[in-house]
Amino acid sequence: MKNRLLMRMICLLCMCFMLCGCAAKPSAPIAGVTLPPVESKWTAPENDVNLDYSKVVMLYLPSLDGTRLVAVPASIQLSAARHHAESLCNLLLSFPGTDTTVSLGEGVLLRLSETDPVEISGNVATVNLSASALRLSHEQLFTVGQALANTLCQFGDLQYVNVLIAGVQPGLDIAATLPAGCFQANTREDLSTLWARASAPKTAARRALTAALYYPAPAGKGILCEARTLSFEEISIPSMAETLLKAISAGAESLPNMPGCPDLMAYSVRIPEMTETGGKRRLVLYFDNDLNAALLESGVTRSVMMAALTCTMTTFLPGLDGIEVHIGNEHIQSLSPSGTYTGAGETIAFPDGLMQRKHFGGFLLTHCTLYFANEQGKLVSVSRPVPFYSACNPRMLLGQMMLGPQPIDHVTGLKGVLPQGLRDADLLGVSFQGDTMILNFSSRLQELCQGMDSGAESRMVYAMVNTLAELPGVKKVCFYIMGRQPETFAGSIFLPGEFMPNLNIVE
Q1: In this structure, are residues 267 and 290 in contact, taking their beta carbons and an 8 Å threshold?
Q2: Structural domain count of the chain
């Protein structure tokens, strides 16, 4: 028994020595587990390239019997830097038809005008056809207008379409007195029903029509469009012109941050007149000399007011080549815009005093969406009026962000998110691949970000991502510096890979 107890004690003692030896041994290092570096599948652009993408769209063409419009799927190349409307129009007008549809125009070759072919402002598109469309009957032209509206409005960003021929509203009757107004998408009713309603006799005491109204934009930058249904007491050119003047004077209903217009009818001294000189039909407007002071008090420049009047009248009133304006004893024959994005300081001359749409192409604006920061560190979506032809250009949008918040924005009191001193030249290239916008900056961006805290870096990155994701087809954004994806801009945000919009930091 004693021997057995002794043996147990010896065994326990040996085990203690063994354990002490293990503890004294240095532990072997454990290999760290690391993730492979993120490999970008894109190539950094050195210029603005590869901005096109393919999309399946619906084209609305007349059925074989001409009773309705039929949706025909078609593949189209669109640009991530331009609005899709002009490309859709070109495809629709040239489409040959199918087994169940015929081409638009019934044998008349339809094209867009070479001058201002498609204008976009807000949710309104104005399509300007070439003079060949004059060969269409008024019912055929109505079918073309409805087909354009159904096709252009399918994505929801556009809701109204105007149709002009060589810059003139053709109207719906031979006498060019019945306006077409804005077309809207209608895929339910047949063409005969729509035509009968649009061309109904103009004998009603009041007639409701949707008109495209153009208003002076903030800071004299140009004009913005809003479509509105108006009641016209009489379908005559002078009476309709007065209704349009009243609507402009009342101000826009849906456009943000707009300056107030003077009461144009209060300064009108004669009923508007329709005259014809040298084969050109013009609407003549007469105002009191006090209109000049009223415009100055409202902060509306004379050139912008004339642009708004010209575009409103020529878009809606049939057969009108342009307008002629008299203020007091002055017959306006030239203007020198001062605050516009393009052409500021350049004199616009009007031969014989006739102001036409083509004179004011550089005045037309639309809103783009930008993101800036508020005092609470949240991003805020901001609408800013910019030239319509560049509103979808990613380089232009980033350039507007570099400018920082502006008085013309519909939200004020915000802070810029990009580092001060960043210039357009620091954006080396932009491209679009799949659904990803790829930006390649110079090393200067990274240098300007040094010292930026984590919140500021996050706001900068997601302000750019959220802004560019407003563009059609863009779902993600990828960043490069000098052709390589950096680890970070300022030390907090891991940049390799792609970024999707972040609405959690948007107020």
Answers
A1: yes
A2: 3
